[in-house]
């Protein structure tokens, strides 16, 4: 290919259609279909060691990802629209999914080296999303919960059968609340809980030339420990003028100091070399913060 010339061009339509039917004054149902394409692809190492995630663009070999999603939902308001409940189910079919070969040498020196370690296939995702909101009063907020499954099927991986995608999370819960103490002060809190990402843990090991070699079974058959944390903050809004409005926010990230797993590595137990121990690395525990916001 000559310098400055286009090597490959992809063209994809992205149709969308949505319908909403109002049953009565407080409830409605909806349904929709959408197609989305993506020319950036996330490569993730499925082991539980140090993450080596990298984004790569579409190329001659790597085609744009295409996702077709259908969904249906129900919405209802309660108590003069002070409360709202939404429920939605969805199914997504994905084309041109990519993943590393078994035993891939993960180095990112050049794009060509990366593409030689890739395999291509399809994916699917489906689930249920629920959200309940309180929209008025001194206490407002919402609770959302998602039950989902995300899988891939790529020839050459997991005996050509479906397996968990790296981003698969069975449960995902969020709780957000804000309480207005008075005209100047308000308190807010956030709680998050989710199932850990799908990973591949070693199932055995052997020694070769004095080095321990770990053996692995099915791709992404295990999960990282569950992730959860709580953030609390207080916001102070002094009296504003017609031209200027400012506020101070004081908060603490991860107030109960949960040590969420960032990576997990495996090594020989120095006290018993015949066994293996898992070593977890965590990042931030408590992170205080002060923020000043203004607008004019």
Architecture overview:
Helix content is 2%, strand content 60%. With 296 residues, the protein is an all-beta fold. The radius of gyration is 24 Å and the shape is globular. The mean pLDDT is 90.
Distinctive features:
296 residues; mainly beta; 12-stranded antiparallel sheet; 20 strands; 2% helix; globular
Secondary structure elements and pairings:
Blueprint: E1 16-22, E2 27-38, E3 40-43, E4 54-57, E5 65-78, E6 83-100, H1 111-115, E7 118-134, E8 139-154, E9 163-164, E10 171-180, E11 185-194, E12 198-199, E13 202-208, E14 211-216, E15 222-223, E16 227-236, E17 245-253, E18 261-269, E19 272-282, E20 287-295
Antiparallel strand pairs: 1-2, 2-5, 3-4, 5-6, 6-7, 7-8, 8-9, 8-10, 10-11, 11-16, 12-15, 13-14, 16-17, 17-20, 18-19
Helix content: under 10%
Calculate the terminal CA-CA distance, rounded to whole Å: 53 Å
Low-confidence stretches: none
Please give the number of β-strands. 20
Helix-strand topology string = EEEEEEHEEEEEEEEEEEEEE
Beta-strand content estimate: over 45%
Tally of alpha and pi helices:
1
What is the gist of this entry?
The chain is mostly beta strands. It is 2% helix and 60% strand. The strands form 5 sheets. Strands 1, 2, 5, 6, 7, 8, 9, 10, 11, 16, 17 and 20 form a 12-stranded antiparallel beta sheet that branches. The protein has a two-stranded antiparallel sheet with strand order 3-4.
């Amino acid at each position: 290919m000559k310098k400055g010339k286009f090597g490959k061009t992809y063209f994809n339509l992205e149709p969308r259609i949505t319908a909403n039917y109002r049953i009565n004054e407080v409830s409605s149902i909806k349904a929709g279909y959408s197609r989305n394409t993506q020319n950036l692809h996330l490569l993730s190492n499925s082991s539980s060691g140090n993450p080596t995630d990298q984004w790569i663009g579409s190329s001659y070999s790597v085609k744009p990802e295409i996702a077709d999603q259908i969904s249906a939902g129900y919405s209802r308001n309660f108590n003069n629209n002070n409360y709202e409940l939404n429920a939605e189910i969805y199914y997504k079919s994905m084309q041109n999914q990519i993943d590393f070969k078994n035993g891939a040498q993960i180095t990112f020196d050049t794009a060509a080296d990366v593409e030689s370690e890739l395999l291509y296939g399809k994916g699917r995702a489906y689930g249920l999303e629920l959200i309940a909101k309180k929209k008025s009063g001194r206490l407002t907020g919402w609770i959302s919960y998602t039950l989902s499954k995300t899988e891939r099927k790529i020839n050459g991986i997991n005996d050509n059968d479906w397996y968990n995608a790296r981003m698969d999370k069975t449960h995902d819960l969020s709780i957000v609340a804000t309480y207005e103490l008075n005209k100047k002060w308000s308190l807010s809190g956030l709680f998050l809980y989710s199932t850990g990402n799908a990973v591949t843990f070693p199932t055995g090991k052997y020694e070769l030339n004095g080095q321990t070699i770990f053996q692995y079974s099915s791709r992404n058959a295990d999960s990282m420990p569950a992730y959860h944390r709580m953030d609390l903050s207080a916001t102070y809004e002094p009296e504003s003028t017609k031209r200027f409005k400012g506020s101070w926010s004081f908060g603490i990230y991860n107030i109960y100091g949960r040590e969420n797993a960032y990576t997990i590595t495996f090594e020989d137990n120095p006290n018993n070399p015949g066994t293996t121990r898992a070593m977890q690395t965590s990042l931030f525990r408590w992170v205080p913060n002060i923020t000043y916001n203004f607008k004019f």
